[in-house]
């Protein structure tokens, strides 16, 4: 890659971080809407106070907050932990290989959210908008 392309990539990297955060959060949120709202229809909806039900609430609410970029770092950190927990509780016991135990998405979400917890939400977020607003006091 030429130095000019690297400079362009560096210039757009923060915006691309925001886009990755939004897309990952919206797809993640769909897991919560399925478990909690039944959209799309869930074959066996979990009880609200079960592990699956609590995970669904985290996916729905946390996914929405992350898509908006509000409290992004702590939310992303919690969701990363949820996905690590989900992998070891629900997927790893089935098989050692993630592609065979269905846990590849959980691993990917875990590390994408961990990255967002450290990198921040990017400029296209409510967190960034709140940081730019001058204090009134």
TrEMBL record:
<keyword id="KW-1133">Transmembrane helix</keyword>
<keyword id="KW-0472">Membrane</keyword>
<protein>
    <recommendedName>
        <fullName>DoxX family protein</fullName>
    </recommendedName>
</protein>
<feature type="transmembrane region" description="Helical">
    <location>
        <begin position="75"/>
        <end position="93"/>
    </location>
</feature>
<feature type="transmembrane region" description="Helical">
    <location>
        <begin position="12"/>
        <end position="32"/>
    </location>
</feature>
<keyword id="KW-0812">Transmembrane</keyword>
<feature type="transmembrane region" description="Helical">
    <location>
        <begin position="47"/>
        <end position="68"/>
    </location>
</feature>
<dbReference type="InterPro" id="IPR032808">
    <property type="entry name" value="DoxX"/>
</dbReference>
<dbReference type="Pfam" id="PF07681">
    <property type="entry name" value="DoxX"/>
</dbReference>
<feature type="transmembrane region" description="Helical">
    <location>
        <begin position="105"/>
        <end position="126"/>
    </location>
</feature>
<keyword id="KW-1003">Cell membrane</keyword>
<comment type="similarity">
    <text>Belongs to the DoxX family.</text>
</comment>
<dbReference type="InterPro" id="IPR051907">
    <property type="entry name" value="DoxX-like_oxidoreductase"/>
</dbReference>
